[in-house]
Specification:
The protein has 146 residues and is α+β, with helices and mostly antiparallel strands. It has two domains: 95 residues, K Homology domain, type 1 (Ribosomal Protein S8, Chain: A, domain 1); 43 residues, no CATH class. The strands form two sheets. A three-stranded antiparallel sheet has the order 1-3-2, with helices on one face. The longest helix has 20 residues.
Length: 146
């Protein structure tokens, strides 16, 4: 890493968000993020995260942290799997944002959230998820009509 490619950025964890929700118990989520971005150095002090590293990796790490904050704000608790999936989605440059996909509510037959969250297997691609959701919706509509 040369000094010309390196930059530093400081992100603030919102005061309304407990640091443990974003970083994980014993920094378990932070460790996953650090392994995914080895060229970026993460330094956490209170509610601030300082990132130092190469620009392309830094930008992706910043975007990941922003997406994880959005997931938490939607009411979804993070897990090792959710953090790993979010990293994978950003690396694949999919059109879907991790916060949109990982915080989808499953609707009841009355159109209200059921309290369950959509669980997405990492081997499932985005088009097949849309197909599954659409077919489930069609089946529910048809069941109500019959």
């Amino acid at each position: 890493m040369t000094s010309m490619e390196s930059r530093t950025s400081t992100l603030r964890i919102p005061a309304s968000l407990p640091s443990v929700a974003l970083l994980g118990a014993a920094d378990s989520f932070l460790k996953i993020i650090e392994q995914a971005f080895p060229s970026v150095e993460f330094l956490v002090r209170g509610n601030q995260i300082m990132l130092t590293g190469e620009s392309p990796e830094m930008a992706m790490a910043e975007r990941l942290l922003a997406e994880l904050v959005l997931i938490i704000r939607s009411g979804q608790a993070l897990s090792d799997e959710a953090v790993t999936r979010s990293i994978k989605m950003l690396r694949e440059e999919s059109h879907e944002k991790p916060a949109q996909v990982l915080s989808l509510n499953i609707l009841s037959n009355r159109g209200r959230p059921s309290g369950q969250r959509l669980s997405i297997k990492s081997t499932t691609s985005m088009p097949s998820i849309r197909t599954l959701l659409f077919s489930e919706l069609v089946q529910r509509v048809l069941a109500r009509l019959i």
